Every structure is written in structure tokens, then in C-alpha cells.
Amino acid sequence: MSAAESAARPTVESATTPRELADGYVYALADHDTMVSSSLGLRPHDDRVPDFSPRAQTDKDELSRQVLAALDRTESGAGELAPTERRCADLLRGRLTADLAMSEAGEHLRLVRNIFGPADRIRTLLLMMPTGTAEDWATIARRMAGTPESLRSYRQALDEGRRRQLFAAPRQVSTMIGQLDDWLAGDRSWFHTFVDGAPADLDATVTAQLAAAADAAAGAVAELRSYLADEYLPAAAGTPDAVGEQRYRVCAATAVGGSVDPAEAYAWGWQEYQRIWAQMRELAEQILPGADPVAAMRHLDTAGAAVEGVEQVQQWLQQMMDTAIAKLDGTHFDIAEPIKTVEARIAPPGSAAAPYYSRPSLDFSRPGRTWLPTLGRTRFPLYNLISTWYHEGVPGHHLQLAQWTYQAPELSVFQTTIGSSSGITEGWALYAERLADELGFLDTEARIGYLDGQLFRAMRVIVDIGMHLQLPIPDDSPIAPGQTWTPELAVEFFRAHSGEPEEYIDSEIIRYLGWPGQAISYKLGERAWLAGRAAARRAHAERGEDFDLKRWHRDALSLGAVRLDELTDTLAEL
């Protein structure tokens, strides 16, 4: 960052509007958190590593309180705020308040989960980094060499949690131990494999630094694995999987991006499950007469369309996204040139089972990317991949989050990046899958995969809330009616209904238990997006106007992040 660029950026102290304050917060947070800095591309050749220590969290909390106090002053002296400023102010206040509630509950002191956890962030940082020059690789060597320091700070947080008797459940810990084993499997760790990608003509000094950094990183991961197995896991014995309603509400508010009524969401999720399952039964009869949906999908696993080979499926997914951009641009969306680049990648070993997306940098020098975990497979049935890549890529996460990046100068960096929540982003991605179906992009095989994904997200609402609040299973359930939800019954429920492989289902249950409230954000978010579109259609009809879906998409994606509590009403006005 040049001195001129630094001087031009708003600060918390100089801000006079909510948007300026929100952006001042982003840049201040980037000073504390290298994940923010690197994910947004704010500091070229940033070689810092994440600091997970209790002290680092205290510093972030103090920043949040400082910004909230500044927001109070800004709002009190601003009079009536413009809609864009009001949305930004509400988003900023809601996000920081939820973050502080999470910290007060000590969630950062027992953060062990199988996806997007602290250890994962180190690898994520390395995968974000540019690799085109010798200087890039020298930066990678310095950052990777800091892995032991970063993992020590993580242990400090876990040790403080132990001191306060705040533990992750043993199921989470054992899963993470297995993932770290995958990182270290074979003759060469993931870190060594990563640096093997460095150019052969690198300076010998940088090559030696990379080798030493990989050795240090692998050693630090092995130490963390031993710590978890030998010290933390025995101490955590007896910690329940369920977090209870109080913790659940705190965690869900952060993930969803708004308030949650668990009882209402649970009942609605059950209705959605029944509605979608009925549709799947009809479609299964078309695919394999006499078969139920699971049998029809098992049939497609072997007899349906598929791609053979890891490299081949990566190429296939890339072509699918490129084709989607060409078909949608100018018809249902206006896609700016920088957004037309998106990359399909294969996720590194030791990842969770679910595909995911990573945002572009603010200057688009690092494009948006979709990631497919292979779980050791080399054959990939397409029926359950197609709608997933409409979700992860285009018109899903990539179209939304890259459009936000493109709109950042007109909105704020906060509204278009770290201010977002799973509710608005995963909700859009599920809406995007539904849109692909509405537009006729899905054949019969792909449609049952789409409905399987929809059913899976509805069942997430049921089992996530059901397991954590230990609710009774509805009396009309085909699985254990009247019994209390447990992880084992949740697995049985999914296996009786889903076409996903067993290892994926097992991984997902671990994910829900380790990330309370995140799993429900998909369907609750989609519900808000669909309600907003329906309300906008009605409003146009009442005014005697045609509803222009492409224009609505443009305006909706140009809002940036909005609190889920306000999303439907905001979309209805477009």
C-alpha cells in the first residue's frame, strides 16, 4: 500500500458518515487480521500469519467497541440518513454487536471445527497468495515459516478455554485430528507438496527458504495434532455436542445475519422437507420406475452421466461456469467484464467434504474461485454436481460476491465484503439454483440432484436446531418419531433421504455440531430472497408495470450486504 493510497482511505477517527466509518473499520481490522488484509488484497506481499491468541481477540473487541461508539456519534449528528447510509449503519451495528456477543460467550476459545477453522485459515492464506514472481514465492516462504507462531497462538486460545472450562466437543476434536493426519499423510506433507509448485529456476536462497518453511509448518501441524490428541481431547471428555438454546441463538445471529426464532424455523424446515420429498418421489418414478428417490440416485451414481478423472472434472466445471456466463449475460444479468473470470479448483486434501467458493480480491488480481473436494474419488456423477456449481459459481456465489466487489466504490468495502453473512450469501446461492431450474437449465437427472440439494438444506434446518436444542423428532417422521434428536439419528435421517455419499453426510453432521446456526442460513436466506422477489412482482403489478427480472437482479446484487431481518422488505422496494 502506497502512502498516497493509505492517506486516501477513511479511518474510524476521520469518518463523518456510516459508510466511511464502516470502511475505516475494514482497514483498521486489516491491521489486526491478516485474513482480512489478504482476502481483500489490501497489502501486496503481506507475510503475516493469523493471530488467534486471546490478546488478539481482545484487540479486535476493543476496535468493535470503538467503532460502535463512533457510529452512535455519527448517527446522532447526521439527521435523517439516506437509505444507503441507513442500511450500512444497521449492517455495521448488527455485525459488531453479534461479534462481541460471540466473544463474550468465549466461542473463540473453543473453536474446533472441520471447516473454515483456525488451522484451515493458514492454508487458505497460502492458497490466496500470488505465485507469479520470485518475490511472490519469497513472501510465501516467509508466511509459511510463521505457521508455528500462528498455531502457538491458537493453542493459547484453546488453553485459555480450558482454564475457563470452555471446551469443544470431543467429536469435533477427533475429526480435526483426522484432518491434520491427512495434511501430513505420505512422504511429504501438504506444505511440501504446495512448495513443489514453485518454479524450478527460483533463486537457490528462496528455494531453501521454502523447503525450510515447509519443514517448520509440517512440524508445527504435527505438534498441534499431538496436543489435541494427548492433552486437549482427554480434558474435553464429557463436553456435549449440543450447545443449548442460549449459545445457539448467539451463534446463529452471527451466521444468519439477523435474529432467529428456532421454534418457527424448525417447524418451517419440517414443512419444506415434506414438500421437497414429495417432489423427489415423483421425479424418481421418471428416472427409475418403482424406485424411491435414494434408489434412483444410487442408480444415477453408476448409470447416470459422469466425468472420469480429477483433472477432467475440474475442466468440466470450468466449462460449465464459462457457458453459464455466456448464456446469462445480457439476458438475465448484466455481467461486467472483470466478473467474467472465475476459476474451478480442486480443494486440498484434508478439507471438509462440502464444495466452497473464495471471493476475488478487491482489484480482481485474484479471481473468484470454486473448490471441489474429491474425497479420494476419481469418478464424478453429474446429477449432483450441476446445481451445486450453479450455487458455488454462476449465477450463485461468484456472480453475487464478484458483483459486490465491482460495486464496492459505489457502496462501501464493508457492505461488499466482510459485512456479509451466510444468510444473504447462501440464500442468494440457493436462489441461484432455483433460478437455473426456472430457466430450464436442468434436465431430469440434474433436477433430482437439485431437489436433493434443496432437501438437504431443509433437513439441515431440522437437524441443526434439533440437535443443538435437543428437540423431539416430529410424530410423522419416518425416523425415530418422538425421540430426541442426536447426531446418530441425524445421520440416519440423512441417509434415508439423501443421495450424498456416507462420508459427505458424516462430515456435514460434524460441521453442524461445530458451527451452530450456520447450516440454517441457507434455507432461511433463500426464503427471504424469494419473498422479496414475490413482493417486488406484486408491487409492480399493483402499479400496472411490467416486472423486469434482469433489472431486479441488477438492483438486488448492487445493494451489497443487508441484514437478513431487512432483506425481504428491501428487495420488495426494487
From TrEMBL:
Residues 38-61 are annotated as: Disordered. It comes from the Bacteria. Pfam families: DUF885. This is DUF885 domain-containing protein.
